[in-house]
Every structure is written in C-alpha cells, then in structure tokens.
Fold these 2 entries.
Entry 1:
Amino acid sequence: MALLEIEELRVGYGFPVLMGISFEVEEGETAVLFGLNGAGKTTTVSTIAGMLKPDGGAIRFDGSDIAGRPPTQLVRDGVALVPEGRRVFPALSVSNNLRLGSWTRRREQAEVDQRRQLVFDYFPRLAERADQAAGTLSGGEQQMLAIGRALMSKPRLLLIDEASLGLSPALAKTVFQVVKRINDDGVTVIIVEQNVGVLPYADRALIMEKGTLVFSGVGDEIRNANLRETYLGGGSE
Amino acid sequence: MGGLFSERRSLLIGIGATVALVVFLIVVGEEKSLVIGLTQGSAYGMVALGLALIYKSSGVFNFAQGEFGTVALYVLYLLDIKGNYWLAIIGALAAAGLMGFATERLVVRPLFEAPRVILLVATAGVALLAIGVELWFADAQAKPVAKAFSRNDRITVFDVQITDQRLWLIVTLAALAVLLGLFFTRTNLGLAIIGASQEPTATELVGISVRRLSSFTWVLAAVLGGLAAVIAIPDLGSFGPGAMTSNYLIPAFTAAVLGGMTSLPGAFVGGVLIGIIQSVATSAPLFQDGGELAIPGVPSTLIVFVVLLVVLVARPQGLLGKRA
Ligand SMILES: Nc1ncnc2c1ncn2[C@@H]1O[C@H](COP(=O)(O)OP(=O)(O)OP(=O)(O)O)[C@@H](O)[C@H]1O
Ligand SMILES: [Mg+2]
C-alpha cells in the first residue's frame, strides 16, 4: 500500500480544474510534480492538505480516506504543506514562526525543542536569525523558514509548493539538498517544481498539463525519458 | 515591515511626546489637567485596548465595543440590587463576554469572507440593536450604579483628589496593558492571534482554527469593554442607554488611532493623551466663555475630533504604529 493514493481526483473553483487525476506516492519517496503555469499543481497539493474540498475521487493517506478533512486535522494526521508564496508570519520572529509550527505538539516540550534543533541543523541560517522578524528575511531565508515551520509538526508527508521559485540556482540547489536530507530522515516528500534541477533528487516524477496527469514515472524512467524535450519545453536548468 | 528596532523607536517617540507634554503642562501651570486627564484617559485607554485587539485580529473597527460595556452596566445594576457587589461585577463581565461571543458567532463569522467595510457596518448594527434593547428595557431613564470603593480623599496630586475608584481604574489598565503585552509576545495563543491576523491560511496549515481564535478574541475584547464600563462609570453615579457609546467610543477610537490602531501599549498611551488634551481644552482660557474659541458645552468633544483629524491627516499610522 502506498502512503498516498490519489484516485480520479476532481477539484475546481466553481469550474473544473483537476479533471480526474490518479497517482500514488510510496512511503519514503521524493516525488516531483511538474507542469506549466496554471496546470493545476497548486490545486493538487492544496487539496491533499485540506485547503480545498474535492468534487469527486478519493485521497487515501496511510490507507484512510482523507478527502474533505480540514487542514487543522490533516496536520495532526501527519500531512504538512509549505504553501505557494511561503506565507511566513511576517511580524513574528523566526523562533515564534517555528513555535506556531509546533502548535499541534505544543504540550510536548521536549519534542518541540528537539524539532527546533533539527530545523536549525537543516538550516543553520535560521538559527543565526532566530530573533529576526520573518518579514525582514530574504526570499531564500523565508523559504527555509516555511519548510522549517512545516517540519515542526513532525509530518510523515511534506508537500512543498514551488520550492525554488525566486531563488538563485545555487540557493535552489541548497534547498533541494536539504529536502533530500529531510527525505533521508524518513519524511515522504512531494515537491512542486518548474526547475528540472530537482530531478537528480527525485524518486518519482509527475507531470501535469491542463488539469490532467500526462506522465508518471519512477527511477531511471524519469532520467531517460527525455522529460525536458517532451513535456517541459526543453527549458534549461 | 518594521522590525523590533523601529517598534522600539516608535515607543520611544511616544514616551518622549508624553514626557514633553507633562513638562509643558507643569510649566504653564496646567498640572491639574494632567491628573484629571490621566484619570479620564484611563477609561478611554481601556476601551481603546479592546478596539485595538479587534482591529489587530479582524481588521475592523468595532462600533459595538462601547455597548459591550453598557450591557455589562445594566447587568451590574440588576445583580447589585440584591446580592454581592463583586459577584455582580463578575456577572456583568460574563454578560459582556457572552455578548462578544454572540456577536462573533452571529455577525462576524458569517461575514468572514465579506469586505471589511460590511463588517464595520454590521458592528454598528450590533451597537444600535443593543441601544434599542436597552431603551426598551430601561426607557431613557438613568440608572444608579454603586462604586466598589467609596473613599475619595486617600490620594491627592496637584490639589486634585483621585478617588479610590479611579485609582482602581488606573491600576487595572496599567496591569492589563502589561499582561496583554506579555500575552501577545510570550504565549502560543497570543502569537497565534497575531499570526492569524496576517496569514490566516498559514495559521490553518499549522493546525490552528482561525474561527476559534476569532471567538476567543471577541470574548476577550468584550470583557475588556465590560471592565472599562463597570470601573469607570460608577464614578459618574448613573448611566443610561448607549452610555459607553456616546461617552467613550469616539475618544477611545481617537486614542486607538493615536496609538497606531494595532498597538496595545499605543492604545494605553493614546487614551491617557486624549484624556489630558481634553481636560486642558476644557480648562484653557481660550476655550472658556468669552474666549476666542468658546463653544458652550462642547470643547471637550470638539477637541477630540480635532485631534482625530490631525492624527489621521498628519500621521495616519499613529504615534506608536508602523507605516503600512
Ligand atoms: N482561487 C481560485 N479561483 C479561481 N480559479 C483558480 C483559483 N486558483 C487557481 N485557479 C485556476 O485553476 C487553474 C490551476 O491553478 P493552479 O494554481 O493549481 O496552477 P499551478 O499549476 O499551481 O500554476 P503555477 O505554476 O502558476 O503556480 C488555473 O487556471 C487558475 O486560474
Ligand atoms: Mg502554483
């Protein structure tokens, strides 16, 4: 049984956007979701995290149907989303952003301290800026904080929407490497990307076009399949 | 954005302005106004605290803030007739909290996604409804309300007696400003309210129900409104329908604007400043009968509007607030 199973998922905003997509992600994998602007990537991960209610289909997480559960419940169940645009709490310090990230575990102080230490290990830059207001961080630092905040809830499935948007190639690579470490530490990851530089870190690739899934592959398939030329417009890294 | 630094700087500006005003008033011999203003302004500050709290979390100016207080007064009046005064106070605060809860459930929550101006008008509706109910219940007659502390001559500053009741108000307000400050910087719940006011989506994503936070905030603000009323009004001896709205809402709003609308210490300092400015205006020769700007009976009301306009035009982010 895969950790996440999506079956014929249909979602819209009064008009249909996802036209019945199906895919699976195994426990321990890093899956990358590609697609041009407007393909429906954000809609997909937002629905998995409970921000949108599906019009049809099933979302099974660890065997149980989670479609329609609110995000406040899903984060307790082990699904965390780093939303598009980062959405850090600008007026709060880095520390306090992380503290709110651990809301669902706020009664387990030892666990919270341990998680914070882990986040600071992944992103030493955040430790240096622990008392700085999040709104004054650079874009890259905000991205790190958004990922760190999501990790504070100790998720089993981490969804990251646009990990590298607006980051320099070098910083994007750093973020991908940390995501790889997070994955190695046992967290299943789905990462929405437009940057094919993420491919070396991925176990599975999913490609969307206009609300449908047009490619799904694992392992060597995704490195040999000439994904770039076929689906991604042959863009550069 | 404004980090900690600029917040500190704003606070220093506020404190500096206050100290300058105090020194100025003592030099020109208006030190009595200072004391009268402080006592009056504390009540404004407490209502302003509730306004800032709601504005901080819902982005709306709450026209019903005054009536949370008036309703508490009626409950105090009813319960105090037979029974323990302090229990009556607790009952009054509970009634205010209940009204805040109901307002959030029945008015704010259904309008969660609506433009803020609609919500603003809706809170005015709540205030009008409350005043209507009060008129129906009590006619237009003033009701007496007893003080918690009756001694008047314990403390005298600059020849002005500060009644024990007023002292209670000042101490409560100062304590509340400090406690709320700690609440919003040190506790999970306080941080969550700040977070939700700016990033509701992210707040839900970390597992916090924004709707539940909203209930909590409205109850807290309503209890503050109730507290302001049951402490401040007894000094006047009686009250009538809409008492808190007509006497306190506009000065408190001005105080909150002066303080930057979202700043809790700002609401506190703003309230005291408005109180002082008002009492100077009422006693200054310029505004007295025969003075050049004499308008019989209304200088204190007039001056509040003048301050409000000046602040809105010259420094809309308030004395302690940050530029948006
Ligand atoms: N809140 C909304 N209301 C109405 N339509 C929406 C909304 N959000 C997204 N859409 C529409 O749904 C479609 C898919 O949008 P989505 O944000 O999922 O795309 P995306 O793949 O994440 O694109 P991008 O790469 O630009 O982030 C688009 O046509 C978009 O206009
Ligand atoms: Mg998107």
Entry 2:
Amino acid sequence: MTNQQERPLLIRGGHVIDPAANTDAKMDVLLRDGRVAEIAPSGTIVAKYAEVFDATGLTVAPGLIDIHVHLRQPGQEYKETIATGTAAAAAGGFTSVCCMPNTVPVNDNPEINAWIQAPERGAIVNVFPIAAATVGSMGVRLTDFAALKNSGAVGFTDDGKPILHDDIMRASFQAATKLGVPVIQHAEDTRLTGGCSMNLGPTSFRLGLRGMSIEAESGIVERDIRLARETGGHLHVAHLSTKKALDTVRRAKQDGVHVTCEVTPHHFTLIDEYVGEYDTNFKMNPPLRGTADRDAMLEGLLEGSIDAVATDHAPHALHEKQQEFDRAPMGITGLETALAITLQVLHHHRKVPLKQIIELLSSNPAKLVGLKGRGTLSPGAHADVTIFDPNKKWKFETQDSRSKSKNTPFDGWDFTGAVTATIVSGKVVYHRDRANR
Amino acid sequence: MRSSKSKQRGRKQKPAPSIPTGSLLAIESFSPEEISSLLKQSAAMQSQLEKSPASRRQLTNTLAGRRVALLFYEASTRTRVSFEFAAKNLGAVTTVVHAAASSIEKGESLVDTGYTIEATGAEAIVMRHPSSGAAQLMAHYLKVPVINAGDGMHEHPTQALLDAYTMLRHKKSLRGLRVLIVGDIFHSRVARSNAQLLSKMGAHVTLCGPNELLPELAATLAPGIELQRDIDAALKTADVIMMLRVQKERLSGLNLNIEDYIRDYQLTQDRMRNAKPDAIVMHPGPMIRGMEITAEVADGPQSVIVEQVANGVPVRMAVLARALGARK
Ligand SMILES: [Zn+2]
C-alpha cells in the first residue's frame, strides 16, 4: 500500500490534534514515502515538490482505527467484501480496521489470515485481522497463537461465540500473554440467551420477544476479569453495553487488572425502545439496552473508563434483515456513521474536547492492539491521517453507503461533523468533494 | 440529530404509515373508539345471524365473492374454523394455506409468500405465525389488509375482541370491571392482547401466576395492571376469571413443577367458593382439563367457555367486514 513514487503531500493550515504527542495547534504536516516526514507550526515547512492539501478550518487527526469490524470475506461476499468494507471504512475516516474471525471458514489458521491481508483483496485501508482463539471458534481447542501472530493477527477472539469454559479462557490468556496481545471477548453467557433477540425489558415483554438479561453480559465480564487477574493477561471487552459490566471493568482497572473495553456508537446513542414495531435494523448483539445503560455508556466515555469507540460493523443482506424479527440476523453497519455520531453525541452535546474523541477513535485503539507507529502523527509514524470538519452539517443516506449492505438504523439522520478526507500511507483514499455519490 | 422519519420510531400507539387500511395487527395500536365500534359491529352481526334465515342469507351479500386467504404457519382449529365460517357468513371465498403444504417449507420467505398470495388475487390475508411481529412484517410489504390471527407471544387481537364481547354479554360495561387473568402470561399472546384491550377500555386487570410464568415486567404492559401471586386472594374481587393454558411444551427450561402449579393455581370448585357468585369463568382454549382448570369448573354454571368459541364468529365477521371495507 505504500507509494514510494508518489509526490510528498503537505497538509497545510489545519488544526492538528495528536493526543499521543500532546499536539493541539495549527500545524502543517508533511507526508513522504508513506510516513510522517515533518510536523511544524503552520507555514514553516518548505516542501517545493509537494502536493498541497489545504486543510484550513479543518481538524487533522491521526488516522482513525476501528478495532471491531466484520468484513465477511472469505465466505459471505454477498454481505460485504474486504474491498467494499474498507471503502466504507475510508468514507468513515478509518485508516485501519481490525476484522473479526467469524468468516466462512473461520480465520483460525495462518493461511486464511494471510489470504485476508493479501493485496488481491483490494483493501484501501489497512486491515489487521483478529484471529480465532479456538479452532473453528468452537470453544474446544486453542488455535496456534504464535503462528497466527506471526502472520499478522493483532489479537484473539471467538467473537459471536463467546468462550464459556474457564480452562479454555485461561489457556487463551496464557498463550496471548506470552505474545503480548489481548484476548477479546464478546461477553455473553449464551447459556442464558437462547432464543433471545433483544434486550430484556418492557419493550421485549410488550413485543413478545425473549430478552437478554444484563447478567448474561456482566457475568462473563466478571469471570473474565477473574481469569485475567489470575493469569496477568490482557482482557479486552468487546462492545460493552451494560452499566453492571462497566462497573465491574472500572473496579478491575482500579485494582490494576489489565482490562480494557470498547463501546459502539449505537450503544451510547440508541435504546431498546427504538426497536419500535420489530425494526430489524435495530437488532444487534449485544442488543440496545435501556436508558440507564445507555447513559452509563456515555458516562464511561466522558470519564475515560471506556478505552475506545468501535463500530462492530456487521453487514447483512437485505433479504436476511427482511425477515421475522426473531429470525433476522443480528448486527448493523457502522463504519460510515461512527465519527459523525461520536462528534454529535460526545463533542457537540456533551462538550467532550476533540482531543478526547481522537483518543477514543485513534490513539487508544492503536495502543490496545499494539499497532506501532499508528494512532499518532509523530515524525516517522505511518502516514495515516483523517481530516474532518467537526461543524459540517450533512445527512447520512444509506443509498450513498459504500458498504455492500445497508442495514443501519441511522438512515436519514442529520449530523454535524463530517469526514473531509482519509489518507492511508500518504495517499488520499477518500475525499468528500471527489466522492461520486 | 434524528430526522423526522427516525423520530417516529419507538413511538407507541401508532402503526407505521405504510400499513394497509383495514389491517388488524395488534390491539396495542387500536384506540378505544375503534375497539367499541368493532364490538358494536359484532353485536349487529350476531343479531342479523340470529334474526331469521332471510337476514342470515342477506349477510352473504356483504362480502359476496371477495377473496380471503387464511395463512396458517401454526396448527389451529378454533381460530381457523371461526375465521372461515365468519368469511363464509359474509359471502366471501376463502382459501386456507397451511405452512406444511406449501412453498413455505421449501424456504420461501414470509414476504415472498405474501406477495404470491396477493398476486393470486387475495383481498385480505388472515395469518397465524409462530414469530412475534410476523403480521407486522407482512403488512409492511403488502397492499392488502392483514389480520393477525396470532403472532408468536405477541398478540391475538381477535381473541381479545371476542373475550371483551363475551364479557359485555354478561356485564354492563368494561369500565371498572375487575378481570383476573391466571396462568402462563409470559408465553401468552392472548394475555397480551387482553391486557392491552381491557386497560384501554378502563377495566382493572390483575395478572396472576408464579414468577416463572409472570415476571414483574408484565406490569409494564399497559397502564393500571396489577400482579398478584395468590390466586385465592385475587379470586375474591374478580368479576371475570380468565384461565390460560399452561404451555407444557415451553416449561422444560423453567423451574416449574407441574404438581406445585396445580396445587397453587388450578381453578377448582373449592377455590370457586372464594369467587363472587356472579363472576364468569373464561378460557381462550385449548383447555387442558385437570391442569389449569378442573372439569367441574369448566362445565360449571359460571363457565362461559363454550359461548366464547361461538362469539368468535360474529366478532371475526366484523373484523373481516372492516378489513374489506364493507358498508354497514
Ligand atoms: Zn460481538
């Protein structure tokens, strides 16, 4: 993906926010040979042959990183491909994505892992696989963590099929700890959620749908924290959705356990009531919760006990979502709306400074999965940059989506805050004004 | 941030704008006026049925030649037969489509089955389906009215209408009426529809059962619903006692002992001594004698269970006439 032959790119006049370097000022950034060559006060960089990107009035940030996406390839190309998924990522300002292993077949061996990262897949942003923790994600036998890490995996998980057995989870921690990578858990006690299609609450009762309890999430988080403490492993809790689980994570952090967590834009924005009359675009796992849990997610983001925002981008074809609610698959797309929602809800409504937003979407995720030289614009770092206008008003319409699937609850939503350009390895892979929509 | 379109979502009491006129999907989205009007229509249907053979014949002009498809994804005797007779009493032509005997088994989607039935000329679809929300899904995509004959654990609106109709034949008004519903509330679409309807019409609804079958959440179903674990206490003030079937096939995962259930909740002669002498006993069926109710009570003087079944026909006639836009 590096373009050694490309002209250098000078991003001029923008407001650079790089939390990792403690930068929050009007600066120019010079990108050369796929790296950040120089960053200096505006107007001071001399680069005769550089192409100039005028970022006046815009925010220049280290490229956003989504550590939880489903790209569906190999095996479910009718939902999404690595090419279409990364195109959606670029449009959403993401320069790197970490893809979950629940493909067909499951990404549980170095061959599939390498295949996903091959240039033939046509990715336009960086793709870092998270490999399966157990063979076939069946929860029985561990995969070869070392071989998978050597072939590019940055973490291990059986996302969607949580590891329930203590001994397997313990062994996962032990293997991952040796390699310095996290074990990522989709915290759901599936023994308690059979047949459930939404959150347990007044709405599920009213609609006659079986509901997932808060305890089905928090119970697994509590168990995993105990094992992380015991093994010294790094537990990363995927798409946290309940106050009870968040409280557990917060306490464990205070106790010095190596635990981190992410939350999705929909879990800090929407509530279960919005399922309304069985709208399957509001069906995902974990499900949308009640107001108290939604508000707790916001609090957690504000106070910093939640480490990252991740989308859980989960494309599904129209014919799959156009089914009876209990039969429709769980999941919604999210790459193209994540930054906008985060800016809208956290920055504009809750007055969270942009620096903190960029920590949640770039520098923290980079640290979480150990992406060296990303999540920052320090000289020498990868030339991955996201340029956005925090005040630009726009409307998201699914018909314009680059994702192959259109299963989002945010169709027709108005936002303040939009991506202007996405730059990967020094090359503009998305520009709002040049986007053919 | 939400667009005007999105703002509609999650709002209760309001069907989506694309639902075909004449559909009956859930009591929850019905107004008290609409309920009253359907109950009045039902009474009119019944009196015309009973007045004379001539008036009965005259009824067949109401929907003469109109086509009604009955789409059943779940076995049902009384509801299907009742809808069929109701349609025929009004002169309509009916076709019954059973899931087992159609392309449904081959994996055709619900919406595609709906399109097919609509394309063959059906003017209304009555449907029963094991998934909650199935009728809503169908109505969302079709142009013809959809009548929900039971969707999963969600609603069974015509059952609630015929239950209310039956209550009104024995009691002056639904307003202030004390209705006790006993049994497996959690799995029951009948309970949900009845609770919605009775709450809207100003009745006092008490739900009774063990925690496994009646979670605390049930109180959030509609305004003014009370929960009571003790059937003997609840029986004392009830004007209407509605017993629900214990859905034995669903009990396997629950911590519920059948003997305990029978001891604590079965409606027996003995228990009926606590009840008001003018209280009526109802059951939407299918009924398991010796389980939730004894034969003595089911066949006893206070039981109106057989009458409920009969009342299904005029009520469903009113619903079909409304769906197909018949005059009067
Ligand atoms: Zn997950």
